[in-house]
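Q: What would this chain look like folded?
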Amino acid sequence: MAITIGNIPAFDQNPTIGIGLSVPFQSNAVSGSDSLFNINYTTAEQIKFNIINYFLTSKGERVFNPTLGSNIREYVFEPNDPSTLEILKKDIKENITLIFPMVTLKEIKAFSDVDNFSITVQIFYSVFSSLNEFVEFNMPL
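A: My prediction, written as structure tokens:
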């Protein structure tokens, strides 16, 4: 985590230096850029992609770091009902609070789409007390 100077993280002081890569990986060759992948230049933007990457990684998937990741994929074969959505939201809240202490969680919404057999999760949060961010991902059931 970057140290903060006032309300701006130290890494964000120079807008030409990249902090990390965005997910999903896409080639930048079409846009004429010299970089091979899309690069994030702000800490808040990188935190957003870190959250996405964390929830797309299952526990035990990383060989030398088996505790990294969430158990969100375990909900794939659970009943698609309101109680499962509440348990899922509680699990997401615990993970974000534990793994991302720089994030202030605002709200978590989970919507069940019975026709498409999926759940859409929306995570509303803020970083550095002033930036409002939003992450959304779909889970097929």
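The first helix runs from residue 43 to 56.
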